[in-house]
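User: I've been going back and forth on whether these two constructs are worth ordering. Before I decide, could you fold them both?

Assistant: Sure. I'll take them in the order you sent them. The first construct and its structure tokens:
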Amino acid sequence: MSSLSTKQIHDISGRSEAVAEYFIQGAIILKKIMLTGEIGVGKTTLLNRLLNLIHYNKKIYGYRTEKDTVGDKHYDIGKVYIYPATGKKIKSQANCVADLTGSKQFTAHTEIFETTGVQLLSNIPKGSIVVMDEIGFLESKAPKFSAKIKEIINNDYIVFGVIKPNNTPLLDYIRNNPNIDLFTITPANRDIIFEKIKSLIIKKNY
């Protein structure tokens, strides 16, 4: 196993049996990985590659957000949805967090973060994998959802997330949190970053 600093690896002494089970199985180290970078550099693709490394039958919790647009997917007309990290993509008004109205204009529905979003981050067993893809600037206007995100990153969970390269109270809190290993992704470094993160999270058995 590669040498990790005290900051990088958490002592599991006295922690829950669920957390200890992950270590006993030799699956992954209790890490909180956040990816950031500009639009289109492959953050979610890299996150999915990391999740594919983990071969066991435990449920993955958390959420994903997705733009469903007409025309240019970054700036045109459409909606942004939030749904469970695994399983069926649910696209309805009940889980629409924003209506995109063109030319970078949008109408936010932060109340969906406070209901559906909070539900997706609630009642998660300690030691579980939690996906948060992605955390952007709207979430800072949803205090209950923001509190859930902070709860996850400050407790015994294995976290894989994506954050926008914006400055908001929540995003700055995540960047500056000592529990977080933050990686900035570019097209040139994403394969290198993948191998680096892999060496951090996979517990090698010899």
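The second construct, handled the same way:
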Amino acid sequence: MATPTRARRPLPLLTSEQVAGLKPGLADPVEYRKSGLSLNHVVGCPLDCGYCVRHLFDNFEMKAPRALMSDEDAVAALVGHRYFRPHRTPLQVFNRATDPLLPVVKPHTFNVLRLLDAQGLTNHVLIITRWRVEPEDCAVLNSFQNLRLTVLVTHSGITDERIEPVDSRIAAASLRTLYEHAERYRTVLYWRPIVPALNDTFHATWTGVSSCPSTRHPTMFPPACSSARRIARLLRERTACRASTEDTARAQGSMPQESEQRDTWTGFTASGRLRLPRGGR
């Protein structure tokens, strides 16, 4: 099996006192989500994204990633979770408290995937990143024989550095690299976040999404993006890309059947802003 080209030491473990100082939701490495389980035993990220969920955990100032436990213990906690079902439960890795493809985090991401794959598990696993992906990383992703792996690259087209400090060209390059080397995984353009007055008009969404042609398999939008169906139609017409929000989310196992009717397209307001679905987030 392929391994990362540069061996790195494991991340330092947080002390029990440091773990006790975290909010409970961040200290628990396995999170139950409505559509699967999320594994997050690495905490800390230097990317400074203004919309980072770590603001909710009072952890945004922790820039250096640290581990709550070893990868082996984390995987054991995941597969031993009461809601885990072999070959069925959709999984996400490092989607809450760090970026899974940061140089110091990447070895842990690949090791977690290796440990799951070695158990013969065929669960669908999502990796969401906005950082650099190299061909060597793709070789590792292609090496897993059992897991059904999808890599989502977050891209929003936002240029305001207070909100999006990471150059969007990094995400665009990662999309292209992932797509060109994909053999045993899928690549998804994940258009998010949607920020009012920055990228919530149809024009902004279409301009951003269409600037990345032939660099992913499908395109995925958050529920609040009511331009999704219109964008999907235009993408199919202009680039022959399959970009259906519902089909993509269902394929990823990230949209429960009961939620599909809730997050429906409702169009734009008279001012050209997105009209959120009822109950939209």
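Notes on the second construct follow. The two ends are 41 Å apart (CA to CA). The beta strands are 30-33, 36-39, 42-43, 66-67, 91-93, 124-129, 148-155, 185-191, 219-220.
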